[in-house]
């Protein structure tokens, strides 16, 4: 599956946003070992966690495929993607 660099950046952004949602829910609900979460809170957090996990897995697979396609070390591609996300790049940027 071929990916462009911009697609990798967008996938990473989506994973980062999903992670932020998980962290927000944890902060809002309190530590599960200290605060009794309702069934709804538990379900909401688990759904958010699964979404983040799946998106993160997809990013890793896409970065690996792109690195092979570009014949570039995977760690280099991953670092460039994370740098592009930090600097708001990606849409239309080809690296």
From TrEMBL:
Top-level division of the source organism's lineage: Bacteria
Official protein name in the record: Uncharacterized protein
Source organism (scientific name): Streptomyces lomondensis
